[in-house]
TrEMBL record:
<dbReference type="InterPro" id="IPR023213">
    <property type="entry name" value="CAT-like_dom_sf"/>
</dbReference>
<feature type="domain" description="Lipoyl-binding">
    <location>
        <begin position="129"/>
        <end position="204"/>
    </location>
</feature>
<dbReference type="InterPro" id="IPR036625">
    <property type="entry name" value="E3-bd_dom_sf"/>
</dbReference>
<feature type="compositionally biased region" description="Low complexity">
    <location>
        <begin position="212"/>
        <end position="234"/>
    </location>
</feature>
<feature type="compositionally biased region" description="Low complexity">
    <location>
        <begin position="108"/>
        <end position="133"/>
    </location>
</feature>
<feature type="region of interest" description="Disordered">
    <location>
        <begin position="325"/>
        <end position="356"/>
    </location>
</feature>
<dbReference type="InterPro" id="IPR003016">
    <property type="entry name" value="2-oxoA_DH_lipoyl-BS"/>
</dbReference>
<comment type="subunit">
    <text>Forms a 24-polypeptide structural core with octahedral symmetry.</text>
</comment>
<dbReference type="InterPro" id="IPR004167">
    <property type="entry name" value="PSBD"/>
</dbReference>
<feature type="domain" description="Peripheral subunit-binding (PSBD)">
    <location>
        <begin position="353"/>
        <end position="390"/>
    </location>
</feature>
<feature type="region of interest" description="Disordered">
    <location>
        <begin position="212"/>
        <end position="237"/>
    </location>
</feature>
<dbReference type="Pfam" id="PF02817">
    <property type="entry name" value="E3_binding"/>
</dbReference>
<feature type="region of interest" description="Disordered">
    <location>
        <begin position="87"/>
        <end position="135"/>
    </location>
</feature>
<keyword id="KW-0808">Transferase</keyword>
<dbReference type="InterPro" id="IPR014276">
    <property type="entry name" value="2-oxoglutarate_DH_E2"/>
</dbReference>
<dbReference type="Pfam" id="PF00364">
    <property type="entry name" value="Biotin_lipoyl"/>
</dbReference>
<protein>
    <recommendedName>
        <fullName>Dihydrolipoamide acetyltransferase component of pyruvate dehydrogenase complex</fullName>
        <ecNumber>2.3.1.-</ecNumber>
    </recommendedName>
</protein>
């Protein structure tokens, strides 16, 4: 039986990948877990292994193409199956030796039966069947355990409707259906652990053969056929409320950026949402026309709820006409913003290849991507490239950017009047909470009701750290490009102590089990004008001092500029909150669920302290003193554990000996 090979998800916030190189060609025999192609994303470059042992039957995506996660990029047949011998003869009979051409490769599965059904070969099991793979829930995740099936065989499912639950060492999550249809087969039972990209279920298409016919046309440009499938009418796509983090169950639509009747491009922002963790612009999944808005501004809806309908996305003919017209319009009026929209959304090579994040940054800053040199594979523009261009724009890019500035003005203009809307409330006025504030309130109450909060306060002599910082701060910024603050010292000391006392980095699961987290992911609370947000610095145990310093600055800047991704505010295992900047001596912070501890950072002050002189005698000296409060869950962390953790934390700071970079 043929097996689909899909574009894997290389991180929680990754939505697409670029296939940079095929390591095998059609007809090659490959072993299970043997690399078959290379991909590149904004976060990682990787070799992707084969999910099975067998023969590579068909390559559906050419080198250099960018496709969405879970898009089928190749078809394989297991060793010994009838399909492994037929394709060789069939492909030579058709004369196809070019990888990525789907039409010649389709006949092998049914070559000796019927020459007509080329399209059904794209779906291995039946004409409209879709394989559901085990997703990759993080860069280092190689397998997942199916903990619960939310649907049974025969059930009808909608696109993005939760299908099953999985558990990995980093995250527990509900996995949505990639298409609408009927669950026809479950291949992995509850409790079974399978490798990423293993097929765990098969969904039969509700639209029948009608959905498979147009599938051949979009594959040339990497367009996502599944995106047009949900509505079943062949011309509309449902837009759903996305899940912006592991624990997020709903979101509030704060602003519609498009109105009914507007034309939208793929990845163009169409509405803004707010949750308790992040405010974000949500891009359109397809190009088309906004035909219906189902949730008004200010409405709070559950994740995966349909909030809008986009029509015309499935029609390949209308999409081809603007693409063809663009070359004639662009030379005649290079400064005209109208041709710019089709060019930005073109996926056939007219615009330099980049991710949605890069295109969003370019649009917000009126940057012509043609002026940005790409350092990624095959010239792909990465996030680093666009940010570097913004810091040091080339002289040639300035004239080209003048026209987009005019086009961007209507978008940028409404952002400035937003400030008066947040005017100070008048005495006696009743003002409703923002969505972020109301959910923060709810989370705080839940934490107090769940955790057995206990706090312990330690006084730390920070004189050595203060002297190191005073001596190095000017040279440090020149050398490394970031300011030398106290936070990297405190964060690094916490990481060292957490490594020695993993119980403080753990969490309760299921009420009667303790999860000892594999990684130390430090949440760092950032105070904003509109609330509090806690971005997470991931895998700090693998970072040196400079890596931590740069990570803290990056997260804080993106938090204040509303540039955080969902992955940036999830997965924390321990939190730091620095309320000392407001002058307090110390506080008693509330633990962030589902964590078991939080470290409150008090103010840094000069105080008299009794210390020993060189002769061992007591003297009074002026020292830099700071108080730190550990809030911990007494259900699993004893007072002795908390005391040992804080003692090690204190010793690292008072006897600092690490290189700071």
């Amino acid at each position: 039986m043929p097996t689909n090979v899909v574009m894997p998800q290389m991180g929680e916030s990754i939505t697409e990948g670029t296939l940079t190189k095929w390591l095998k060609q059609v007809g090659d025999t490959v072993a299970r877990d043997e690399p078959i192609f290379e991909i590149s994303t904004d976060k990682v470059d990787a070799e992707i292994p084969s999910p099975i042992a067998g023969k590579l039957m068909e390559i559906k995506v050419q080198e250099g193409a960018t496709v969405e996660v879970n898009t089928v990029v190749a078809v394989m047949a297991e060793e010994g199956s009838a399909a492994t011998s037929a394709p060789a003869a069939a492909s030579s009979a058709t004369g196809s030796a070019t990888p990525g051409v789907p039409v010649p490769a389709a006949p092998p599965a049914d070559a000796q039966k019927d020459a007509t059904p080329a399209a059904p070969a794209a779906a291995p099991a039946a004409a409209a069947n879709t394989d559901v793979p085990m997703p990759q829930m993080g860069e280092s995740i190689t397998e997942g355990t199916i903990t619960k099936w939310l649907k049974k065989v025969g059930d009808t499912v909608q696109r993005d409707e939760p299908l099953f639950e999985i558990s990995t060492d980093k995250v527990d999550a509900e996995i949505p259906s990639p298409v609408a249809g009927t669950l026809v087969e479950i291949k992995a039972t509850e409790g079974q652990t399978v490798a990423v990209n293993s097929i765990v279920a098969v969904i039969g298409g509700a639209a029948g053969a009608a959905t498979s016919t147009p599938a051949a046309a979009p594959q040339a440009d990497g367009a996502s056929t599944p995106a047009a499938a949900p509505a079943q009418d062949g011309g509309s796509t449902e837009v759903v409320m996305p899940q912006m983090g592991e624990s997020i169950t709903e979101g509030t639509i704060t602003k519609w950026l498009k109105k009914v009747g507007d034309t939208v491009q793929r990845d163009e922002p169409i509405f803004e949402i707010s949750t308790d963790k992040v405010d974000a612009e949500i891009p359109s999944p397809v190009a088309g026309t906004l035909t219906e808005i189902k949730a008004a501004e200010g409405t709070t809806v559950a994740i995966n709820t349909v909030v809008a309908i986009i029509g015309g996305a499935a029609g390949s003919a209308p999409a081809a006409k603007p693409a063809a017209a663009a070359p004639t319009q662009a030379p005649a009026a290079p400064g005209d913003p109208k041709p710019a929209a089709p060019a930005a959304s073109a996926s056939v090579g007219e615009t330099p290849r980049s991710s949605p994040l890069v295109r969003k940054i370019a649009k917000e800053n009126a940057v012509d991507l043609h002026q940005v040199p790409g350092t990624g594979p095959a010239g792909r523009i990465t996030k680093t490239d666009i940010l570097g261009h913004l810091q040091n724009p080339a002289a040639a890019a300035k004239p080209a950017a003048a026209a987009p500035v005019a086009a961007a003005a209507p978008v940028a203009a409404p952002a400035k009047p937003a400030a008066p809307a947040a005017a100070q409330p008048q005495p006696g006025e009743l003002v409703p909470m923002t969505k972020m504030r109301s959910i923060i309130a709810q989370r705080m109450i839940e934490s107090k009701h769940t955790n057995a909060h206990v706090h312990t306060v330690f006084k730390v002599d920070m004189t050595r750290i203060a002297r190191i910082r005073d001596k190095e701060k000017n040279k440090y910024e020149q050398r490394n490009g970031v300011k030398l603050t106290y936070m990297p010292f405190i964060t690094r000391a916490a990481v060292v102590a957490l490594s020695k006392h993993p119980i403080v980095n753990s969490a309760i699961e299921g009420g009667n089990a303790i999860r000892y987290n594999k990684n130390i992911n430090i949440g760092i609370a950032v105070a904003l004008d509109w609330g509090l947000i806690v971005p997470v610095l991931k895998q700090t145990e693998e970072k040196n001092f400079l890596g931590i310093a740069r990570g803290i600055v990056d997260l804080a800047n993106r938090a204040r500029n509303k540039k955080l991704a969902p992955d940036d505010v999830s997965g924390g295992t321990f939190t730091l909150t620095n309320s000392g900047i407001f002058g307090e001596q110390f506080g008693t912070p509330i633990i962030a669920q589902p964590q078991s501890a939080i470290l409150g950072i008090g103010g840094l002050n000069k105080e008299p302290l009794v210390i020993q002189d060189q002769d061992g005698g007591d003297v009074i000296a002026i020292r830099y003193i700071q108080r730190f409060t550990l809030g911990f869950d007494h259900r699993i962390i004893d007072g002795s554990d908390a005391g040992k953790f804080m003692t090690d934390f204190k010793n690292v700071l008072e006897n600092w000996s690490e290189d700071i970079g």
